Amino acid sequence: MNIDASARTADELGPDVRIRKVAAPYEQIKRYVMERVANGTWKTGDAIPSETMLVKEFGVARMTVSRALRELTNDGVLKRVQGSGTFVAPRDYESTVLEIRNIADEIAARGHRHAAQVLTLDASGDEAALAALDLATGPVFHSRIVHFDEEEPIQYEDRYVNPALFPHYLEQDFKLETPNQYMVRLAPIQRAAFRIYARKPDVYIRGHLDMEIGEPCLMVERRTWVGDAVATSVQLWHPASRFHLAGTV
User: Fold this and answer.
1) Is there a single domain that holds both residue 153 and residue 71?
2) β partners of residue 161
3) What is the average per-residue pLDDT within 82-100?
4) Which NCBIfam families is this protein grouped with (predicted)?
5) Among residues 63, 88, 113, which one ends one of the domains?
């Protein structure tokens, strides 16, 4: 496979995975590896193709392949064993990265029951979502979910997801497992950026959160990364009267 033949590479990656923009050869190899780890093609402990095989498949210099594998090893995605090869690393590094708390776990910690109402689960070509995910073309995956503490709605989640990293996202039952749980199980978060706003919700969000007119929300806007790729962009809306932030440093 010639790494510069982007159309042919996209075909080989399958119908749900497309290379959106031309990247440096070592970055394309990193993406190739990350996609197979994220979608379960290569599981923890599996040996990946040798450097010689990757050089032949991508038609690049050995130093290009070495750089890609070295950076993935530094990121904790791969583990290189001298004399044996390169393997998908165990995910015991999850606890060292930024913790993104799962709302179902927060509710369970209070001794309450979590429930979810899935409002939207489909593909989207929204331009703002493409920009947030750093993708040139779509579609991307979109979900809107209301989370309940017992029978009280406490969070409206509006999420866009990178289909290259999570190709089976639309097939999941998010009444049984939250998007956060599903994505972290497949590909642990390695970086996150967020902003927090005080905003009044529109009538659609206000209705699903059972809020009074004029009541403000605490809105968390967050992006997360797996390797060099933006994994998800999400807005989390919480009624101010039913939510608070807490933590320790």
Assistant:
1) no
2) 141, 232
3) 62
4) his_ut_repres
5) 88
Q: Does residue 230 form part of some domain?
A: yes
Looking at residue 10, its pLDDT comes to 39
Handedness of CA 40, 85, 227, 94 (dihedral sign): positive
CA dist 212 and 100 (Å) reads 29
Which pTM was predicted? 0.63
pLDDT band at 219 (very low <50, low <70, confident <90, very high): very high
Residue 53: pLDDT band with limits 50, 70, 90: very high
Tell me which residue range forms the domain holding 60: 6-88
